[in-house]
Design goal:
This protein is of the alpha/beta class. 49% of the residues lie in helices and 15% in strands. The chain has helices spanning 10-26, 48-54, 70-88, 100-111, 131-142, 151-159, 183-198, 201-205, 220-224, 226-240, 253-262, 265-273, 285-294, 303-311, 326-330, 341-353, 368-378, and strands spanning 2-7, 32-37, 61-62, 92-96, 116-119, 145-148, 176-179, 212-216, 246-250, 277-280, 297-300, 316-318, 334-336. The chain binds uridine-diphosphate-N-acetylglucosamine and uridine-5'-diphosphate (UDP).
């Protein structure tokens, strides 16, 4: 079986690592994988670092598309992926998540009648102002095999009219839907042990009392709407005041490029002078999970980091109006605080004071990648 895997953004490279590892370990004589990188993320610390660290084969093809507006970026990717599919004629095109690289892959695959495998299918925020919501809905509806990490995802698809009990033969008109757990959990189990041994990020930061909040912010509505960005950073200032925990914030390039112009000048200065806020460049995956394991709490608008907080049994504050990972909130392990300064501060205080949080298993058994490979082979 020949598959073309499309990656482009940081989280997709990380997710693809789990599938590539499973192919290498258990299916190398049965699955040939061709990795295509659209080039959506291109800084060394947003792309190359993950290939080396996670042992992913270098992409066979890098389209080098880079940054652009949604239309131009997606169109250039579509053109590039279409040419590759015509040349390679794979049995499946494998797509992850909800980025513009996912959407371009879905459009290319569907029009060429190459069955699409969508990993991380079924997630919904029910907020179509998010570019990701459009991308994931369109990809799900063009897919032949939908691998869904959570039961909430299965219910979402059912409500949209998918037959979640469909039987083979599967096609774009009769897609197969499988609840398989979360492929990011596979990675975490694989790398968690070595993350702290192989990195020095925690000692390098020299955090007082070792108490810190790990924060990441990159959603377009948080970076591009100044009121929201100001509210989030005001909350960070407030949280670190009067002997509060320190904050470690690996800055996504989108956020770091906008910080100085979007924050009010006084707030920007105050953040820059605040020794308890560690603004650092994006870290590697192993460094990130070392930070997650050692954090007291995680405050984020990232999809992947929300789940990783839960995997490591860390309280979570979501800096978004809603989440696709509703189980975390339903289980009381996280609070949606949006970009509301007071709500962020009160949620952090509440969760840090609650020693009775529980984290029932909702993201599978850490073998999603093997499950996906077996299903693809059996069909
Ligand atoms: C993209 C995804 C988002 C995902 C995120 C993961 C879409 C629509 N958005 O958002 O779903 O959560 O990746 O991180 O696909 N930039 C750099 N260097 C890079 C990459 C980006 O400087 O290597 C800067 C550029 O200024 C660029 C901006 O970041 O314009 C945004 O990059 P883009 O890939 O368009 O969207 P993300 O915000 O990264
Ligand atoms: N991540 C990383 N370094 C960082 C920030 C995040 O390795 O500096 C990892 C994180 O552990 C998770 C993934 O990147 O596995 C999440 O990606 P991101 O937040 O960019 O995107 P999202 O999941 O929101 O689409």
């Amino acid at each position: 079986m020949k598959i073309v895997t499309v990656v482009g953004a940081r989280p997709q490279i990380i997710k693809a690592a789990a599938l590539s590892r499973a192919i290498k370990s258990n299916f190398s004589n049965r699955i040939e994988e061709i990795i295509v990188h659209t080039g959506q993320h291109y800084d060394a610390n947003m792309s190359d670092v993950f290939f080396g660290e996670l042992g992913i084969p270098q992409p066979n093809i890098n389209l080098g598309i880079g940054s652009a507006g949604h239309g131009k970026q997606t169109a250039m990717m579509l053109q590039g992926i279409e040419s590759i599919l015509l040349e390679k004629n794979p049995d499946f095109i494998v797509l992850y998540g909800d980025t513009n690289s996912t959407l371009a892959g879905a459009m290319a695959g569907a029009k060429l009648h190459i069955p699409i495998v969508h990993i991380e299918a079924g997630l919904r925020s029910f907020n179509k102002s998010m570019p990701e919501e459009i991308n994931r809905i369109m990809c799900d509806h063009a897919s032949t095999l939908l691998f869904v990490p959570t039961l909430a995802g299965i219910r979402n698809l059912e409500k949209e009219g998918f037959n979640v009990k469909a039987e083979a033969p599967f096609s774009i008109d009769n897609p197969g839907i499988f609840h398989c757990g979360d492929i990011m959990f596979d990675n975490l189990l694989h790398f968690s042990q070595t993350a702290e041994e192989k990195t020095t990020v925690i000692s390098d930061l020299a955090i007082n009392d070792k108490r810190f909040i790990l924060c990441t912010i990159h959603r377009d509505n948080n970076t591009d709407i100044p009121e929201r960005l100001n509210a989030i950073f005001s909350a960070l200032n407030c949280l670190t005041a009067e002997n509060g925990p320190e904050v470690v914030l690996p800055l996504h390039p989108r956020t770091s490029k906008l910080l100085e112009t979007r924050l009010k000048p006084l707030l920007f200065q105050s953040i820059m002078n605040n020794k308890s806020i560690h603004l650092i460049p994006p870290v590697s995956y192993l460094e990130m999970i070392a930070l997650e394991k050692n954090a007291s709490l995680i405050l984020t608008d990232s999809g992947g980091v929300q789940k990783e907080a839960y995997f490591f049994h860390k309280p979570l504050v979501v800096a978004r109006p809603e989440t696709e990972w509703t189980e975390i909130i339903d289980n009381g392990a996280g609070i949606i605080a949006d970009a509301d300064e007071e709500k962020i501060v009160s949620s952090v205080t509440e969760l840090l004071g609650n020693k009775g949080l529980s984290f029932p298993e909702v993201f599978g058994d850490g073998h999603a990648a093997e499950f996906i490979c077996n299903k693809m082979l059996s069909i």
